[in-house]
Write a structure and sequence with these properties.
This protein is mostly helical. It is built from 14 helices and no strands. Bound molecules: zinc ion (2 copies).
C-alpha cells in the first residue's frame, strides 16, 4: 500500500519529451508576504555567524584529520539521512515509511543541519511545490539567483510564522508530539547548539586524556567543532540551497512540469540525488529521484538498502517512464532490429520452420 500524496502534482504537470529551453526573460517580484522587505534577524545572524565560524577552518591550528573525516562523514550522516531522506523524501512527500524510532532518529540528524525545524522545512517545501516558479514560490530564481539561493532566508515572510501556514502545509507533521516539541522554545535550535557542544566536549576530553595537556584538548575539541559541525553545516546549506537555485535554472528536463525545474548532475552528486529535480517535480511522491540508469541517486540506494533489510516500507517508485534521450535514440534502431529478429524466430518456431543457420 502506498500512502496518499500529501501535496499532489500540479494540475499542469504532464509527461512529455521536451527539449532544453532557455528561461523566459520574465522576472518575478518577491512574494507579496515579504513586501515591504524586512530582515529576518534570527536567520540572518545565524547564517552569517556559522559562515564566519566555518572560515576558522582556514587556520592551520584548527585543522585535524579527525575533524576533516567527521566533516566528510557528516555530509552523508546528517545531510543524506537527515535532510535528503528524512526531511524531504519521508516527511515532506511520504515516499517511504520507516519505523517511528528510526524516522525520529533521522529527523534529529536533520535538525542538526540547522535548516529549520522539521515542520517549517516541510511547510516551506510543500509551498514551493504548490507554487513552483510563481510569485508565491518562497524561493524561485525568477526573482534572482541570489534570492533563490540564500536571499529569501534573510527576509521575513509573514505567512511562515502564522498558525494557518503550519495548519495548511504541515498538519500531519505536527500531529506527532515528537515534531511538535521542536517548535516550542526554539528546541530545534537548542538541539543544534547541544550537538555542537558535544563535538567540542568529546574532542576536549579525548585530546586532554591522550596528551595530558589541557591546551591540546582545547585545540582538538575546537577542530572537531569547526570541521565536524560548522564546515559541514555550511556545505550542507549550500548543497540544499543549490537545489532551490541551480536546479531551477540550469540542466536538462525529462518532463514538462509547468515550472522551470531541471536535472543537474553536479547538484545530484553533492546533494545525494536531489539534483534530479525535474524528475522530482514531475513525480513528487517517488522515493527515487534518478529515473534513468545513469542518474546517480545515493539517497535512493540508501532507501533500497533499508528496504532490503526490512526497515523501509511503502516505498513509492516512479510512476513515469523516463523519456528518450539522444543516446538512447542512437541505440533504439539496434534494439528494434533485435526485437524484430526475435519475433521472426518465434514465429518460425511456432510455424515449425527451422531457422536458417
Ligand atoms: Zn520536494
Ligand atoms: Zn523545486
Amino acid at each position: 500500500m502506498i500512502l496518499p500524496d500529501p501535496i499532489g502534482p500540479r494540475p499542469d504537470c504532464a509527461v512529455a519529451q521536451v527539449e532544453i529551453e532557455p528561461l523566459s526573460g520574465n522576472r518575478l517580484a518577491t512574494p507579496a508576504e515579504t513586501q515591504p522587505l524586512k530582515i529576518a534577524w534570527g536567520h540572518a545572524i545565524s547564517i552569517v555567524a556559522v559562515h564566519l565560524l566555518a572560515l576558522l577552518a582556514l587556520l592551520p591550528w584548527l585543522f585535524s584529520w579527525t575533524g576533516l573525516i567527521l566533516a566528510i562523514a557528516g555530509f552523508f550522516v546528517y545531510g543524506l539521512l537527515g535532510i535528503n531522506l528524512c526531511y524531504h523524501r519521508i516527511l515532506t512527500h511520504r515516499g517511504v515509511t520507516l519505523p517511528k524510532w528510526l524516522e525520529h532518529t533521522f529527523a534529529t540528524l536533520g535538525v542538526c543541519c540547522l535548516q529549520d525545524s522539521p515542520a517549517r522545512w516541510v511547510a516551506v517545501h510543500r509551498m514551493h511545490h504548490q507554487h513552483s516558479d510563481e510569485q508565491s514560490d518562497p524561493h524561485t530564481p525568477l526573482v534572482h539567483f541570489l534570492w533563490s539561493h540564500i536571499g529569501w532566508l534573510f527576509v521575513e515572510h509573514r505567512q511562515h510564522s502564522r498558525y494557518f501556514f503550519y495548519e495548511h502545509y504541515a498538519r500531519d507533521i505536527l500531529r506527532d508530539p515528537f515534531y511538535l516539541r521542536f517548535e516550542k522554545n526554539l528546541f530545534w535550535l537548542w538541539t543544534y547548539v547541544i550537538h555542537a557542544a558535544l563535538y567540542f566536549l568529546a574532542g576536549l576530553a579525548i585530546g586532554w586524556w591522550s596528551t595530558g595537556e589541557a591546551l591540546a584538548g582545547v585545540q582538538f575539541g575546537a577542530s572537531l567543532l569547526v570541521w565536524g559541525v560548522f564546515v559541514r553545516t555550511v556545505v550542507e546549506w549550500h548543497n540544499t540551497w543549490a537545489v532551490n537555485s541551480v536546479t531551477h535554472l540550469w540542466g536538462y528536463r525529462n518532463y514538462e512540469t509547468g515550472d522551470d525545474s531541471r536535472n543537474h548532475w553536479l547538484v545530484a552528486l553533492t546533494a545525494h540525488g536531489e539534483g534530479w529535480h525535474n524528475n522530482h517535480h514531475a513525480d513528487q511522491r517517488s522515493a527515487r529521484h534518478g529515473h534513468r540508469w545513469w542518474e546517480y541517486d545515493l539517497t535512493w540506494l540508501t532507501i533500497r538498502l533499508l528496504e532490503i533489510v526490512g526497515l523501509a516500507t511503502h516505498v513509492a517508485r516512479p510512476r513515469l517512464a523516463p523519456v528518450a534521450t539522444a543516446a538512447s535514440r542512437l541505440v533504439q534502431p539496434l534494439l528494434d532490429l533485435q526485437a524484430q529478429s526475435s519475433a521472426e524466430l518465434e514465429a518460425d518456431r511456432l510455424s515449425g520452420k527451422t531457422p536458417a543457420l
